[in-house]
C-alpha cells in the first residue's frame, strides 16, 4: 500500500478536501482502536500525540465538546423575533487572572459598563448609570459605539485550559428589548387590523374611499411584523458582532497590551481623557456654585 502511494504523482489538495481527508482518516484510525464505549481524556491526548495533533488543540476541542452549543429557544417570540441571548466564545492566549483584569478595564472604559455581579466562575456587567455616563455613550466619546451597553447585561466566563491559554465566553442578554419589540409589534398589528376591519365593516363610503380608509390600516398591520422582526434581528446581529470584536481584541492582544502598559494612546483615548476632564470641571463648577447658596440664610 505504501509503495503504491509513493509511486503515485504528488497532487495539490484544497483546504476543503484537506478537512474531509483528515476527518475521514481520524474515523478510520478510531475504527481500528479497541476503545470500547468510551475513552479517557488522557488516552485521547496520547492518541493525538501519536498522530501528531498538538495537545492544546485537543484540549480545546474537548472543552468545546463538553460545553456544547446553547440550546435554541422555543416559542413564538423566539421564532419570529430571534433569540433573547447572543453569545460568542473563543480560545485566547493568556492566563485567567491577566485576562480578567484586562476585561475589567476594557468593560469599564471601552464599553461604559459596571460590575453587576462577581461570582467565582463568571462576572456579570451592566450599563453605567448617571448623567455623565449617558453623555459619554450619546456622544460616542473616544470614537466608540458602546454597543454592549445596550444589552440588559453581559456575562463573561473565563476558563483556564492550560498554562498560557483560556477559553472566554461572552453572552449578552437582549431578552428585554426583544420582548418589548415583540409586544409593541403585536399591539400595533392588532390595533391597525381592528381599525381596518372596522372601517371596512361600518363605513358606508364609495369603493375608492373604502380602499383608502380601510386598506391603509390593514396594510400597516401586515407590514408591522416584518419591520419589527427585521429590526430586532438586526440588533441581535450587531450585538453578536460586538461580542466577536471583543474576542478579536483579546485574541490579538489589543486589550492585553493596553492593560500591561497602563497608558493611554491615540486620538480615541485622548478624546476620552478630555471628556473625563470636562466632566471633572463641570462637577467642580456645580459644587462651587452651590456653596454660596448653602451659606445664605434659609438655604
Could you name the ranges where pLDDT drops below 50 across 5 or more consecutive residues? 257-270
Terminal CA distance reads: 99 Å
Q: What characteristic shape results from the CA principal axes? A: flat
Report the sheet-strand fraction: 5-15%
Mean pLDDT across every amino acid position: 74
**What is the domain total for the residues?**
1
Rg value? 29 Å
- The helix content, as a percent range, equals 55-70%
Q: Quickly count the helices.
A: 11
Main beta-sheet annotation: 5 strands, antiparallel
Name the structural class: alpha+beta
Question: Strand order across the biggest sheet?
Answer: 1-5-4-3-2
Number of DSSP-assigned strands: 5
Structural account:
By secondary structure, the protein is an alpha+beta fold. It has one domain. 62% of the residues lie in helices and 13% in strands. It has 11 helices and 5 strands, in the order αααααβαββαββαααα. Strands 1-5-4-3-2 form a 5-stranded antiparallel beta sheet. The longest helix has 45 residues.
